[in-house]
Amino acid sequence: MEYKTLNNGIKIPVLGFGTFQISGKQCVESVLQALKQGYRLIDTAEAYGNEKEIGEAIRLSNVSRKELFIVSKVNFTSYENTKEVIKQSLEHLQTDYLDLVLLHWPFGHYYQAWRDLEDLYNQGIIKAIGISNFDMDRMIDLIHFNHVVPAVNQIETHVLCQRQEEHQWLNKYQVAHFAYAPLGQGQLQDMFEIPIIQELALKYQKTPAQICLRYLTQSDQIVICKTIHEQRMIENISIFDFMLTEEEMNKVKAIDRKQIQIGKANQPEFVEFAMTW
Predict the structure, then answer these.
(1) Which of the residues 90, 105, 222, 265 could staple to 76 if both were Cys, CB 3.0 to 4.6 A apart?
(2) Which residues are catalytic?
């Protein structure tokens, strides 16, 4: 595993296990298997409704809490009750601290929620705080009118939506680029058929998915992958035994379509809350 140091000095694995739309017994079994295969970054959210199952999987795994990096998110409908949501997450995940907590969307009373996260961060209950699905103008505004700079911004990112301009802004403000849907959540299978991806997979004896993931991690991004299949868990984490050359990185960079698709599809219905303060 490779690690990235966040802007407050803590280290995070650059590849983690995502749990979006995994629930019940399947969630417990999937997280257990992911931990067995070496994943130590586990990503969840209040909105996913699976924190209890993740907590149970962690308990059953016997993996030391010190080895884990647990990420959760507060949903925008709960921003007026952020501290209560965090307390609930701690209970469900069976831990007394969280490594990273994000505001899931830039809707509703997110300023109030951010200041609650700042308070919990200052108490040491949360080791780092960040944001998710924030456009750059919202992020910059949040930074200028609050005390703690977000450690990360978790946004849809894959080889067909590389967020290159956003990446420059994130670097400028020392906010880590945290990629979700790095393989398109099954909706963008054509990315695996692109000639340069196929060519590199053949050269390095890797799968197209592994080439896509390696490109992202080499682009200074933190990546979370979701799957319930053991073989794909193994495949996704087996990307640290090769490096793409600068020329190859530039070729993959050139296939960017700059199209955000997954994030829009998952966006909450009540977007009229976006300007509620």
Answers:
(1) 105
(2) 48
